[in-house]
Amino acid sequence: MNQKLDKEKADRRLEALNFKTERDKEIQRQQANNTEFHSKSILEFKHMLTSIQNELNNRFDHQDQIVDNMSDVLKTIQDTLRLIGK
Predict the structure, then answer these.
(1) What is the mean pLDDT of residues 7-32?
(2) Count of CA atoms in the C-beta half-sphere (13 A) of 65
(3) CA-to-CA distance for 38 and 18, rounded, in angstroms?
(4) Which pTM was predicted?
(5) What CA–CA distance (Å, rounded) separates 84 from 42?
């Protein structure tokens, strides 16, 4: 009877040890996945931020050029009107 109990205890200890080992491996895998996800997310957000900043700068440059062109057109019209008015 004692042998059966000792064997049962040994089997349970072994099961507990196996469970602990598997649990630790799973925790390490999850931590690695979390770290990788965090790194990739930060990198992607930085890329998006750079893209948005570039797009805004491009739009501002384009708007500035439109305003400059309109100023040139108005100046030409004013100069033409001055010449006609003389």
Answers:
(1) 95
(2) 6
(3) 30
(4) 0.61
(5) 63
